[in-house]
């Protein structure tokens, strides 16, 4: 999964008080794994929006 593989680079390139929106994520297990990974890298989930089986995540430092 691209968002998984690119996570370290995405977080590294993010400004000190930056935020990122991740989309194209399947709700459920994939969503949980992505949130855990990005939180481990120092981001905090601010909001999740759902449409059918998809979710987009808004995370910030």
UniProtKB/TrEMBL annotation:
One of its GO terms (cellular component) is ribosome. One of its GO terms (biological process) is methylation. Pfam families: PrmA (PF06325). Transmembrane segments: none annotated. Its EC number is 2.1.1.-. One of its GO terms (molecular function) is methyltransferase activity. Keywords: Methyltransferase, Ribonucleoprotein, Ribosomal protein, Transferase. Coiled coil: none annotated. Signal peptide: none annotated. It is an enzyme of class 2 (transferase). InterPro entries: SAM-dependent_MTases_sf. This is Ribosomal protein L11 methyltransferase (PrmA).
């Amino acid at each position: 999964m691209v968002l998984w593989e690119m996570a370290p680079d995405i977080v590294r390139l993010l400004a000190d008080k930056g935020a990122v929106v991740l989309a194209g994520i399947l709700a459920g297990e994939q969503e949980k794994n992505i949130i855990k990974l990005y939180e481990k890298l120092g981001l905090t989930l601010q909001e999740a929006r759902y449409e059918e089986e998809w979710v987009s995540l808004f995370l910030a430092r």
